[in-house]
């Protein structure tokens, strides 16, 4: 192990980590918004939009992110006549992929809430929007936390394919340095360390939040 070389590479990996984090978290936030909207559509079976949402979920859950990025970055500009930069493509690709997974997480949470709670709230004079906002949605989110955390970790790991569209993320820097200096082991060790720095805190925080929510719901 050449520790001197690893020390020299640290600034490059650090820059790449911040780029990966920025694109990853913006994409994840976008996926939460998309997922919530799509889940509402599928839960309430909104005409026309319901069929479109099902098609979207199946399309994005059953195709690799790499293919989706290639289509948006290389093929779509030929159809539209204009393109988007690599960073925007990465954010949008991650948001759309994550949206399909988050939609299923939200939907399963919504369906896990007992219908009697909605009926009781309506009988007390609450409007449908109030029932959704104060009764159903908080419980659905709490029930889906474990799935949300798993999806966030999955999406952060999927950022490793961004190098395919020339984004200077962690994988891009690692491959570039390996190609230049052939320090394969050193670069791969740094790659693992930096991905652990990104993902491990999410896993720990997710576990803590899940336990707190479970304790709040069941007192154990």
Low-pLDDT stretches are none
Helix content estimate: over 70%
Number of spatially distinct domains = 1
Q: Specify the number of helices.
A: 9
Helix and strand string, N-terminal first? HHHHHHHHH
Mean pLDDT over the residues: 88
What's the gist of this structure?
The protein is 84% helix and 0% strand.
Protein architecture, described:
With 220 residues, the protein is mainly α. The chain has a single domain (3-111, 136-218), classed as MetI-like fold (Orthogonal Bundle), CATH 1.10.3720. The protein is built from nine helices and no strands. The longest helix has 42 residues, at 3-44. The protein starts with a helix and ends with a helix. The relative contact order is 0.15. The mean pLDDT is 88.
Set out the fold topology.
Elements: H1 3-44, H2 49-61, H3 65-80, H4 86-112, H5 115-123, H6 128-143, H7 145-158, H8 170-181, H9 184-218
Helix pairs in contact: 1-2, 1-4, 1-8, 1-9, 2-4, 3-4, 4-6, 4-7, 5-6, 7-9, 8-9
Features:
220 residues, mainly alpha, MetI-like fold, 0% strand, single chain, 84% helix
């Amino acid at each position: 192990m050449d520790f001197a070389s690893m020390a020299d590479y640290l600034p490059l990996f650090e820059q790449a980590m911040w780029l990966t984090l920025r694109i990853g978290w913006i994409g994840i936030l976008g996926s939460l918004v998309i997922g919530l909207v799509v889940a509402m559509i599928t839960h309430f079976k909104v005409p026309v939009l319901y069929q479109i949402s099902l098609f979207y979920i199946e399309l994005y859950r059953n195709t690799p992110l790499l293919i989706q990025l290639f289509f948006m970055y290389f093929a779509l500009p030929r159809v539209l006549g204009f393109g988007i930069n690599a960073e925007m493509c990465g954010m949008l690709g991650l948001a759309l992929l994550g949206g399909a997974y988050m939609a299923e997480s939200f939907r399963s949470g919504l369906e896990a809430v007992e219908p009697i709670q909605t009926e009781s709230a309506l009988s007390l004079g609450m409007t449908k929007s109030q029932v959704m906002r104060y009764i159903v949605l908080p419980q659905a989110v709490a029930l889906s936390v474990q799935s949300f955390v798993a999806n966030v970790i999955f999406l952060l790991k999927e950022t490793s394919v961004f190098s395919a569209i020339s984004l200077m993320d962690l994988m891009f820097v690692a491959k570039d340095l390996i190609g230049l200096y052939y320090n394969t082991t050193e670069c791969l060790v740094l790659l693992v360390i930096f991905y652990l720095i990104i993902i491990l805190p999410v896993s720990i925080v997710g576990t803590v939040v899940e336990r707190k929510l479970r304790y709040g719901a069941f007192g154990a």
